[in-house]
């Protein structure tokens, strides 16, 4: 039975969420505030988190960032604001999906199931994926580490995913739409989301957009990581 941590300060909404989730076979734990949620995630990690953004003690976006600092647990954000920029911020901060309030119990359950399906840990018996070597870049998909010229790159989850994806498709121009679909699994996001992460990656890899070494932008087409810069 998957365990959901519901982070919600409103007792009426909380009770409704508990009922819906228990009805769909989840074990439900609750936290009323941001710090309480962080403590719960640290002490007895749930399988997935439903996070309300409007909490009394901390801003939900800050909670999300702090969660991402300590855990890869999938987070589905419940937001009252149906605002494009807000949603980009949430996804960039590490939300796996979001729901705009008010939402139905059925939609919540379906979204949770979808996020859990995507995030189910790989079968431990499966073959360990090989380390990717592209030029002086070394990427270990299992350990989720990346080294450039022997130096470890400190990357966010998405930056790592983007780099590993481009490395796995070295020397191919990857359209942003395809990257959003396959790395973010959210094809309806703005192309700009990819560019934000690309510039962060370039900075960390010591590259300039005007004179990139590995990460090339092919105008009007997409992005490629070149194997012999
Ligand atoms: Ca609230």
Structure report:
The protein is of the alpha/beta class. Helix 1 crosses helix 5, helix 2 packs parallel to helix 3 and helix 6 crosses helix 8. It has two domains: 117 residues, Response regulator (Rossmann fold), CATH 3.40.50; 94 residues, Orthogonal Bundle (Arc Repressor Mutant, subunit A). Helices cover 40% and strands 20% of the residues. About 3% of the residues have low confidence. The strands form three sheets. The protein has a five-stranded parallel beta sheet, with helices on both faces. It has a four-stranded antiparallel beta sheet with strand order 6-7-8-9, covered by helices on one side. The chain contains eight helices and eleven strands. Strand 1, helix 1 and strand 2 form a beta-alpha-beta unit. The chain is elongated and about 60 Å long. It binds calcium ion. The site of calcium ion (CA) has 5 residues, from loops.
Q: What's the pLDDT, averaged over the residues?
A: 88
Q: Provide the number of structural domains.
A: 2
CATH architecture of the largest domain: 3-Layer(aba) Sandwich
CATH class annotation of the largest domain:
Alpha Beta
Query: Number of helical segments?
Result: 8
Which band does the percent of strand residues land in? Answer: 15-25%
The H/E string reads EHEHEHEHEHEEEEHHHEE
Q: From the alpha carbons, calculate the radius of gyration and give it in angstroms.
A: 19 Å
Give the name of the CATH superfamily of the largest domain: Response regulator
How can the largest sheet be summarized?
Answer: 5 strands, parallel
How helical, in percent, are the residues? 40-55%
């Amino acid at each position: 039975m998957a365990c959901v941590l519901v982070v919600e300060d409103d007792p009426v909404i909380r009770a409704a969420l508990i009922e819906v989730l228990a009805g769909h076979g989840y074990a439900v734990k609750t936290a009323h505030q941001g710090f309480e949620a962080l403590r719960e995630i640290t002490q007895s990690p749930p399988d997935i988190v439903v996070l309300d953004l409007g909490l009394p003690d901390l801003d939900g976006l800050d909670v999300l960032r702090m969660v991402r600092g300590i855990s890869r647990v999938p987070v589905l954000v419940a937001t009252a604001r149906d605002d494009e920029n807000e949603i980009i911020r949430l996804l960039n901060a590490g939300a796996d999906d979001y729901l705009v309030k008010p939402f139905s119990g059925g939609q919540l359950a379906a979204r949770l199931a979808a996020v859990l399906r995507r995030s189910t840990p790989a079968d431990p018996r499966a073959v360990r994926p090989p380390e990717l070597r592209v030029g002086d870049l070394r990427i270990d998909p299992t350990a989720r580490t990346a080294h450039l010229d022997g130096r470890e790159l400190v990357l966010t989850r998405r930056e790592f995913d983007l780099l590993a994806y481009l490395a796995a498709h070295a020397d191919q121009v990857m359209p942003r739409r395809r990257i959003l679909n396959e790395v973010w699994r959210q094809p309806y996001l703005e192309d700009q989301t990819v560019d934000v992460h690309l510039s962060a990656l370039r900075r960390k890899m010591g590259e300039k957009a005007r004179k990139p070494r590995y990460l090339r932008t092919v105008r009007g087409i997409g992005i490629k990581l070149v194997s012999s810069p």
